[in-house]
Amino acid sequence: MRWLKFGMALVIFGAMGWLGSGMAEERWRIKNAPPLTPLAEDGIRDPSNPAITKLQQPAEALGNFPVDRRGEVDWVKTLRQGLISPRKSLDGDEYGGKEVMQEMDLDIMLKNTAQMPWVRFPHRAHTEWLACGNCHSGIFIPQRGANPISMEKILKGQFCGRCHDKVSFSLFVCERCHSVPHEGSGPAWW
Ligand code: HEC
Ligand code: HEC
Ligand code: HEC
User: Fold this and answer.
1) Cβ contacts of 158 within 8 Å, gap of 6 or more
2) For the chain, is the Cβ count within 10 Å smaller at the N or the C terminus?
3) Which pTM was predicted?
4) Are the beta carbons of 90 and 97 closer than 8 angstroms?
5) 144 lines ligand 2 (CB under 6 A)
6) How many A from CA of 48 to the centre of ligand 3?
7) Domains of the chain (ranges plus CATH)?
8) Among all ligands shown, which has an atom nearest to the Cα of 100?
9) Which tens digit of pLDDT belongs to each residue from 53-76?
């Protein structure tokens, strides 16, 4: 059963590769544009629009931020190093805001990972940017083990995949989630 699931994950990643090279090529290229690509070349903005020269370039805005293995900005490190300080509520009023963020330091170990290292889900790295209501209970029931999460569902955009690979770091940096080696997980192969 464990191997079956593992095989399934490989099939899914194979399919993603196929999508990347085939019909979804355009979308794929844009989505994976390197973070410091000049705005006029990112495939999203109109290079012939005169306003393009008014916008701050990524190399200027993000150039000094720490990056992960894929060269994408590591926002958790950026925050910890004090390079940015996000607002604690939508209207910027820490105490009177409508949905003021409340930080919580509680790690949850997700062990249904077959041969991959376990996933340590950190509440802290999330509640520094998100309110409890962003996840509970629309995406996750707030109870350990109550959510049938799997890699396949994440790849389909459910659970963690509601944000990761979209507004948060890519699913290709496996080790940022699968960070806790266990007996039988072996060395990194990804
Ligand atoms: C955003 C976090 C995240 C990233 C990035 C991530 N995973 Fe997962 N993965 C999970 C979670 C959560 C589970 C389910 C754990 C549970 O329910 O106990 C999981 C489960 C798995 C499983 C177990 C079988 C299954 O289908 O559920 C495999 C295999 C797996 N991941 C492989 C990978 C590989 C390979 C990568 C990188 C290419 C990767 N994962 C990247 C979060 C992640
Ligand atoms: C990014 C999404 C996310 C945010 C934001 C979030 N949580 Fe969670 N929470 C989770 C996940 C994932 C689990 C584990 C669910 C599982 O094991 O199936 C969890 C579990 C819990 C649990 C159960 C703990 C246990 O031991 O059973 C509680 C309580 C909880 N969260 C409270 C909160 C509170 C309070 C906040 C805001 C301060 C918050 N969460 C913010 C995703 C989130
Ligand atoms: C509501 C959006 C949202 C959901 C759902 C979500 N995350 Fe995240 N996650 C974020 C954001 C935002 C960050 C911090 C910014 C960044 O790193 O991109 C983050 C950071 C993390 C980090 C910290 C990485 C580090 O280097 O310290 C881990 C680990 C992580 N997420 C795993 C998960 C897992 C596993 C799940 C599902 C169980 C999940 N996340 C669900 C938005 C989300």
Assistant:
1) none
2) N
3) 0.87
4) yes
5) yes
6) 36
7) 66-190 (3.90.10.10)
8) 2
9) 999 999 899 989 999 998 889 999
